Amino acid sequence: MMMLAADTLPAPADLTRRFAAARVLVVGDVMLDRYWFGDTHRISPEAPVPVTKIERTENRAGGAANVARNIASLGGQATLLSVTGDDEAAAELDALMQQAHVASHLLRDPTISTTIKLRVVARNQQLIRLDFENRPTHEILRRATEAFHQHLPQCDAVILSDYGKGGLAHVTEMIDAAREAGKAVLIDPKGNDYLRYRGASMVTPNRAELREVVGAWQSEEELTAKAQQLRASLRLDSLLLTRSEEGLSLYQDKTVTHQATAAREVYDVSGAGDTVIAVMALSIAAGLGEKQAMLVANAAAGVVVGKVGTAVCSLPELLAQAPFQAA
Fold this sequence. Notes:
The protein is an alpha/beta fold. Helices cover about 35% and strands about 30% of the residues.
């Protein structure tokens, strides 16, 4: 794919064509987000808790599955590789991926359960979240790594989506193999041990995640110094900091680029990080430079935060944003 000039955004028709040809492999922790919606009018006589009458239920793809769904919603070719239990939740995830036009490869382990996050919502207020999860076994993780090597030649970029559920135990091996094959590797990180991400193309922490690794900062200058030091120490090409209402900051060798978020009403920031890394990887796979990819990702994230829950941005919604109207 031909690279664009550093200060050029593709025309909508060109971007559509580029996205359709771009192939992204998404690997990491998947989960099924379950929502039980209802109403509550009284307190239980058994305990001081609200009684909720459930009126409807909804299942949504979460974690790495939501990342893959974001890629497919923009017309890209998304392949998802993950580990699940051999249960009803895994079958539901497979069905959701099929509906989203994602090539899903869920390796099933009958000894574990698929990760589920169950939320009970009444009057637009989340009352409780119940999590069901198990750590994957060594055997299924080795099978996942072998599958990764098989799928790698057929992709243009790789996303490693780490939610701390154990699905990326062999992340270092995956990074090394992808970089040796000349693929861009973008990582959504988790925890305070970033050494295992060494050598990746890009990591995309939010402010809280970065603070957990480098400590607090008191000024923009101190933040830049800490981010650049981390980037250099991990031998990353770049570090993309997602800053919620403040937009995005891209730290590259000797340069920093800030992209302010578009002014809009924010309903829900959950899943915005999934959208950012999905659009960054898809754009890079489509031949855009990192700065152009950041502009596209910021526009897509602005659409998603205006929706409730783990939502995605469609291609028409993206192309309706200001950067493309000005192109």
